[in-house]
Amino acid sequence: MKLKYNVDSILTRRRKKIMNPSFDFRLVLFEKIKIEGTDVISFRFNQELDKLEVNKTPSLFEYTAGQYAYFNLDDVHGDPNDSTRHFTISSSPAENFIMLSTKIRDSPYKQRLSNLEEGDKIDVSAPEGEFILPADYSKPLIFLSGGIGVTPFRSMLNYATEKQLPLKIIMFDSNKNQQNILFKKEFDDWTALNENMKIVYTLSDDKSEGNNNFGTEEEWNGEKGRIDKKMILKHVDTNTLNEAIFYICGPPDMLKSMQSLLEKELEIPKDRIKIEEFTGY
Prior knowledge:
Keywords: 2Fe-2S, FAD, Flavoprotein, Iron, Iron-sulfur, Metal-binding, Oxidoreductase
Mean pLDDT: 88
Radius of gyration: 19 Å
Pfam families: NAD_binding_1 (PF00175)
Shape: globular
Structural class: alpha/beta
Helix content: 10-25%
Largest sheet: 7 strands, parallel
EC number: 1.14.12.17
Protein name: Flavohemoprotein
Cofactor: FAD
Number of strands: 13
Number of domains: 2
Strand order of the largest sheet: 1-13-12-8-9-10-11
């Protein structure tokens, strides 16, 4: 299901499936990381490209923090969406590897992806997308993230921290329970290093505490409930609210509710809202 927005008044970035994307790059897998308690796996590939028979192929896969690419696998059979998917590049250009992080489903493509081993290769298109950090660092950014939609924000937060960008960022990260908070240790480490960065975690499942199949959760001192006006105003001062650019990424229902929250309840102008819309991840 596609959400429809007024594209003349809101900065909406849709991922459109390209029928025949060009795969000019080949990456080699060197590590798989299963995120405990979730169905998410991160795949890390060497930054150096494997050789392809194309002209002027760069020695490194180059991209901008927040972008995505198409990944093509061999030996995918019976998948209604064929052998190609687009994924956010969840690593950042400041890191020495290329990473994608995704939920593993029962589709033939996802099962083939989950079975990749060290040394296996995957063909990749050139990076795409404009859901990226602004060139002008004078305005603060507020990220609204839901679940696996945090992947472009991981890329941007790492890059801003490693490059010591003079850019104020506040991220609200909503997840069902503590086990589903992706990259939390990294985010906490980066927040300790970056005085311009603040992360507000919230758990949307009221029953998540003390009811976890993966073990006893730690006492939760963060926010509870879905991101709403009260929560935002608690952590964002008036000046920041009036100047900030808002980035939203997450499941379709979250995108719709966050857009309504910003426009109707907080009266944020549409030209200060950026949305990354993609489904089926």
